[in-house]
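dumping this here before i forget
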Amino acid sequence: MGDISYSNGNGNGVNGNGNGYVVNGIGNGVNGTENGVNGKFHPVLNGYRKSCWYEEEIEENLRWSFALNSILHTGATPFQDIALLDTKPFGKALVIDGKLQSAETDEFIYHECLCHPALLHHPNPTNIFIMGGGEGSTARELLRHKTVEKVVMCDIDEEVVEFCKSFLDVNREAFCDARLKLIINDARAELEHTENHYDVIIGDLADPIEGGPCYKLYTKSFYELIVKPRLTKDGIFVTQAGPAGIFSHTEVFSCIYNTLRQVFKYVVPYSAHIPSYADTWGWIMASDTPFVISADELDMRTKLRINGENRYLDGKTFSSASTLSKAVRKSMENETHVYTEGTARFIYGHGHNSAQKHN
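structure:
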C-alpha cells in the first residue's frame, strides 16, 4: 500500500531521521523503527500515540496524504496487498496494491457512474456480468435496478471478497441478495468458457498497474475476442478507465478509449471528480447500438427502474460527465495508441510484485 507515516507534530521523519518515521508498504518497517505485529501497525512511540497519515504517490513528484484515525486491517493475498484504513476526511478506505480503491464518503460517485449509465441506456437489462468488483459496491448498485434478474460477480481473489464481506457493512445486503452469483475465478477465463450472454458486462477491475494482475483485461484482443462475443444483441460494455484529469488522462484513459473504438461502433467516454482519488476519474461505455437517450429520458428511466434515489447521477449530470473539456477531448480524438499486452500502458504506482519500486 502507500506509505503510512507517524509524526508528533514537529515534522515528519523519514528513514529514522527527524521526530517521526515512515513505514513503506504493508508491515515493512524502515531502518528497524516499525512497531508492527503480524502486519498490523501500533503507532505508539515514546509512551504516547502519534498522529498517523496515509500517503500515496500519485506521480513521481506528487503525493497525496491524509490523516488516519486508525488502521483497521492489513494483509496480503496471493494476488494483492490489502488494507482497510479509517481515515479522518473520507471514512473507511479500501487500499489494494498501494492504490486507494474506494472511500466511504465518496465511493457512491464512482459506483453510480460505473453502473447506472450502461443499464439505463439498455432497453431491458436483466443479466449482468461484473469483472472484478470484489468490494461488493458495484453489485449493490446493479441490484437496485428492478429489471435485473441476475448479477454474476467474478473476482479472482477470494480473500479480498471475504475481507470486504466482513468489513464493509454497506454491502452486506448485496452479498446476501439471491440474484447475486459470486464466482471466484479469473474473469477472462470465466467469460472465455461460459456459454451465457449478458446484457451488460462491467469492468470493475483494478487499475492497469505494472506488476498488477489486471492489465491484460484492458487489451484489444480481450475486448474483441472475449468480451464482445458474450454480449447480447443490444449489449453494452462499460469499464472503469483510470485517471481522466487534464494531465493524467494520457496515462491509460485515452488509449483504452481508442482501443475500444477499434472494437465497438459507438464509444462514450465520461468522467467525474472523486475527492478521495485527488483527481478526475474516467469510465468508458461501448456498444454496437447507438447511445441516443436524452437527459430527460435518463431521468424518467431512473425514476421507473431504480429503487431508491441516486446521490450523484441524473440525466444532466451524465450529460455533463460525457462532455469532456476541450483539451481532453482534443487529446482523445488524436490518440492512436492501441492497448495490447505488448504495448501496455500503466498508471503510476505500485504493483503487487514491485511494491518498493518508488520508495
